[in-house]
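Archive entry: two folds, one per protein. Generate the first.
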Amino acid sequence: MNRATPRLRALAALPFVLALAVHLLLFARWRDELPAELATHFSAGGEADGWTGPTAYVLVSTALLLGLAAGWTALVRRRYLWAAWATAGFAGGLLVQLLRANRVDAFEAVVFAPGMDLGVALAVAVVAGAAGWALTALVPEEPAREPFDGPGDGPRLPLAAGEAVGWSKDTGSRALTVLAALALTAAPVTLLVATWPGALLGLLGLVIGVPGLALARVRVTVDRHGLTVRSALVPRPRVRVPLDGVEGASVREIDAIADFGGWGYRVRAHRTGVVLRSGEALVVRRGSGREFAVTVPDAQTAAALLNALVERHGKV
């Protein structure tokens, strides 16, 4: 499996550390020129209409950059290192432009020029992204993934004629469970107390939380009907691949981000999957040529049984 190396993680975190250092140094240097309350929210015309105290501003901006750093450090892949640097450049550029806009006399209005300031931040992002792309040369190439070429590559279990056998295992994602539970908890509160624009966030929490909780834990079953993956909590959603639609099964190490772009039910070119973590996965080649993958422990046994059932069914 393609894991981020310590060097790659360090290079992904570096631009955010640099952005934070520059931002805090400028804040300290300009502190005497900044107002008691910093303008941090602006109208469409660029005029300030929201303010934050210096201490809160420093804490929030630091948390923002550190949060972005943590996310990119955990999820970065070699080919996306430039994007981590571009993100740090854009965020850092915006924060510096915000400080610059607040360096005004007591009788001047704080004005944020969206066109110019966003342009400066984008320019910094481009330069930072180019630096990140150049630094990619310091990270070893990721090994090429070996595709699953057919049922002959997969394991098999010996089955007697007419023998009834099945395999089933539950698997889940603690992170998805927590996120879905938080979304569902926050949704009714937001719907009750927020105004109409804010209530949209409550609706979004329901849209994310309900299917997220349903897919946070699934049951994977292999039996005479084929492969079935369904929610362990409710009858639906469910994915079924009948034996007639299976060409073969194998085991593969799946990287949730690199292979499927995230967690949950994922759809990519030529493949779909129920991906709850990175690691061992049962991969089924369907008759259409597409693949279906589900991350589950003991995938070797599931693949061996499924291949044996398909073979006995006369498809292999």
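Generate the second and append.
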Amino acid sequence: MTDSDIPVPRVRTIADLARLAGVSTGTVSRALAGKSLVNTETRERIQALATEHGFRPNQMASRLRTQRTGAIGVVVPLGHERRQHLSDPFFMAILGHLADALTEQGYDLMLSRIIPDAEDWLERIVESGMLDGVLLIGQSDQLETIERVARRYRPMVVWGAHREGQAHCAVGVDNRLGARLAGEHLIARGCRKLAFMGEIRTLELVERFHGLTDATRAAGLPDPLQLDTHLASDIMAEEIGGHLDRALGSFDGIAAASDVIAMRAVRALIERGVSVPDMMPVTGFDDLPLAEQVAPRLTTVRQDLVLGARHMVDALFARMAGEDVPSVQMVPELILRETA
């Protein structure tokens, strides 16, 4: 019998690999995990044997031992705007930054778009046993549910607004201040009758409307005209067109609740022969990458999504480690471009 006729032992488990290497299963486990407790020569020999025999550790067993799943849930609740999709430019931007931050830490991402029809939708997610932590993108109209779950489930961080005394950890921009900056700029340009184009059913957008109102009241001007506009792209353009056809002439400046609404408004104005910004200055809110790419380029309020995503992930990992980290409220910045 030649050497080539000798059957190669099959390596299916850590015990098989340990017998082949002549070490304990604990040593194999530590070596495959790259632990420095195993000397370099032994660790490299075990890793080489694992590669040679195509051995992959049983991830499920490892997760059972460590009580970790290696997955973070990223959840988008859409109670207020059920027709909005994940393809929305804001969601795509922040999801990309969160995915980068999570994968850099060796975690998988489990993405869910939720229409919260059941009262216990969030409990089902956090109690699934499939996740080490949860990131919520937006509070929607689900503040009561988020607060209820946050009082007993700590590894959860939410993108959104912060109010004094709330239980859940939120990361976001000072929406009220940001909208006030936009309003003050429009007023400084000579606007005297502002319109807020957006809905006021979610905490973040309510704060933006209030910030614009702060600016008009400080200047002794009438409160802004609120033109209810959904964030769902399939009805947004029609609503904006309807607002302009009915109310154009009753306002001389638009502060939009989002960049996407602002960009659609600019297009609708130009289609109606209203030049931007000469006849109607327009501001957005978010500073998405598109804001600098459209023509005319969009004046907007920046909420730093790169920094915000990093704050969310850092806060989540701290909470997973047992720390009770507080909310983070970032400072907005008015970005002046061509539309105002």
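Annotation attached to the second fold: Residues 89-104 form the longest helix (16 residues). The longest strand covers residues 71-77.
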